[in-house]
Each structure stands twice: as structure tokens, then as C-alpha cells.
Design brief:
Radius of gyration: 14 Å
Number of helices: 3
Order of helices and strands: EEHHH
Number of domains: 1
Strand content: 5-15%
Distance between the termini: 45 Å
Oligomer: single chain
CATH superfamily: Winged helix-like DNA-binding domain superfamily/Winged helix DNA-binding domain
Number of strands: 2
Shape: globular
Length: about 80
């Protein structure tokens, strides 16, 4: 199974935000938990219905979304 297959975008779930397996856990929430310093093990302990592959899927999704060819600075 491709990790990105775990990402669900459904307008009826979390207002269309990307979620993990449609469980109402937005990808951004998992990324915020990781960036706050939580370990994957701590996240899995707090959210028992998530799986390790869900966390990896959130990271893979973030990598895919941020893949750009070039960034132009905004002109003020």
C-alpha cells in the first residue's frame, strides 16, 4: 500500500482538509504534534486509533505538498 493512499480528502470530513484514513485527524494536526516535539510513539499513545503508517503518511504528504520547482519572493 502506498502511504499516500492513507490520506483522504472528503468535503464532508473536517471541511475537506486532508485527513488520515478519514478518521477526522487532519494531517496538519499530526504534523503540528511532531513539530512540537512529540515522538511518534507519544502520538500513537495519545491517539490509539492511529497507526505508525499514518504518521509516515502525514510526513510523505507534507513532502509532496512542499515539492516546488522555485519560490519567488513577494514584491512589496
Amino acid at each position: 500500500m502506498n502511504l499516500l493512499d492513507r490520506i483522504v480528502i472528503d468535503p464532508t470530513i473536517c471541511h475537506g482538509k486532508p485527513t488520515l484514513r478519514g478518521l477526522r485527524y487532519p494531517v496538519e494536526t499530526v504534523l503540528e504534534l511532531l513539530s512540537s516535539g512529540m515522538t511518534p510513539e507519544e502520538i500513537l499513545g495519545d491517539y490509539e486509533d492511529l497507526e505508525r503508517e499514518d504518521i509516515l503518511a502525514a510526513l510523505a504528504y507534507a513532502a509532496r505538498v512542499t515539492r516546488v520547482k522555485r519560490i519567488e519572493p513577494a514584491v512589496a
